[in-house]
Amino acid sequence: MTKTLIQAIEESGKIGITGHIRPDGDCVGSTVALYNYIRKNYPDKSVSFFLEKVPDEMAKVLNAPIPLNGDECDETFDLFVSLDSSSLDRLGPNVHLFEKAGIKYVVDHHKTNTCFGDYNHVVEDASSCCEVLFDLLEYEKMDLSIAVPLYLGIVHDTGVFKYSSTGRHTMEIAGMLLDLGVDSARIIDGTFYEKSWAQNKLLAIALNKAMLYDEGYVAATLITRQDLKSVGLSMNDTDGIVEQLRLTRGVEIAIFVREDGDNYYKFSLRSKNGEVDVSKIAVYYEGGGHSRAAGFNVSGNIDEIIENVLRLIKEYKNKA
Ligand code: 5GP
Ligand code: MN
In this predicted model, what pLDDT tens digit does every residue of 204-235 receive, in sequence order? Predict the structure, then answer.
């Protein structure tokens, strides 16, 4: 028997909410929206919010709770909800809280989702986890504290309403959220497009180092820890670089590599027109994502890994 998210909430007293490590806009938006929804509509329930730090530019526009760290918590929850996370390991320090909860509930939109909950509400063709969550909640019970994070998540995961996953339903939801008073320009400019001066400098470094492969079909770049240090930034400040490569005329596949440790790298892959299902390459390296946007972490010799990724691109080309 399946159970709706609302049913699960109604029969639980103590609820935990989490998303994936290094949370992006959709992850922050969906977790904050659900937290605020429960606080508003079920004030008698206890609800705890477990996530890494909410990025400053998002915290500025959201009514977000201070996140807790699962490493410092040993409680047992009646219900634990995982949002925007495709596998258990992506919950980082909060895995153990999810595992021992009475009801483990997964809400997501990744095609690589491993369905690691007791209940798994995964809508693959939804633009964002926020879109999936919107459909699980009651519109009449939403206010601005719920509409803003939902709108923010949709904006981020659709690249501001442009990726192919953006459908009529996405736009209708966005319209309904605007009706609740969302300030669209503030969210789009303030949390998506606006970058710090140092981030612009990092983008310049990344573009300067970028290389074309396969006669311009693939564009790739690598940012080292030294590059980050040179502009005073951290690993969390690299959003938007892969998008700039993706936007290069003629380029189908964009690859952004970030050195996260000694011979340890984070890959972000994009396929502009969906000619290569990049989630397959991510899964090959035990990562995940969507057919046009996916990622993974990997250890090893970077030249050999890039060579292998280029080989996989050729192998999967036009088999999406
Ligand atoms: P990004 O390249 O922006 O980090 O991520 C693109 C998409 O791939 C997102 O939907 C993200 O959740 C997913 N993704 C990125 N890295 C990983 C990873 O290491 N594991 C999994 N399962 N998914 C990832
Ligand atoms: Mn998402």
Answer: 999 999 999 999 999 999 999 999 999 999 99
β-pair partners for 293: 270
Question: Ligand 1 pocket check: which of 268, 281, 298 to mutate, most ligand atoms within 8 Å of Cβ?
Answer: 268
Closest atom of ligand 1 to CA, residue 20: 12
pTM over 0.85: yes
Ligand 1 site residues (CB inside 6 A) read 86-87, 90, 110, 112, 268, 287-290, 293-297
Q: Which domain holds residue 130?
A: 5-193
For residues 178 and 206, membership in a common domain is answered with no
Residue 236 is part of a domain; what is its CATH number? Answer: 3.10.310.30
Interhelix angle 129-136/25-41, rounded to 10 degrees, is 20
Rounded Cα distance between 275 and 220, Å, is 17
- 201 plus 188 within the same structural domain: no
Same domain, yes or no: 119 and 170: yes
Three-state SS at 80: strand
69 with 216, same domain: the answer is no
Sequence letter at residue 141: K
Q: What contacts 105, CB < 8 A, 6 or more positions away?
A: 5, 8, 79, 80, 81, 82, 117, 118, 119, 121
